[in-house]
Specification:
Elements (H helix, E strand, L loop, with lengths): L1 E3 L3 E4 L13 H15 L4 E7 L3 H9 L3 E8 L6 E9 L2
């Protein structure tokens, strides 16, 4: 989690090693990250991902994140649609 001055937190580098995927660790890490953000007084959490991360996006959406932006990117010669998701914290 990276704090920003406008009381937003950014979820960065949220990656679970392939050998440990499907065990619920991602969901648990996400829940812990959101709880941490609430405890620190953040009002919103956002993250950036790419459209091909379907499993992760589904997990974010189940947690309440909503897509707020997207744009094309050709970084390192690879075409992606980058997406930004945000969650309002209670």
């Amino acid at each position: 989690m990276v704090g920003h001055p406008d009381r937003r937190a950014q979820l960065r580098w949220f990656i679970v090693h392939p050998e440990y995927r499907g065990l619920g660790l991602g969901k648990r890490l996400l829940q812990e990250s959101l709880q941490y953000s609430k405890e620190k007084g953040f009002r919103r959490v956002f993250l950036e991902t790419t459209e091909d991360q379907k499993t992760a996006i589904a997990m974010y959406e189940r947690a309440g994140f909503r897509k707020i932006a997207e744009h094309e990117n050709h970084l390192w010669g690879v075409h992606h649609i980058e997406q930004t998701y945000e969650l309002q914290l209670p």
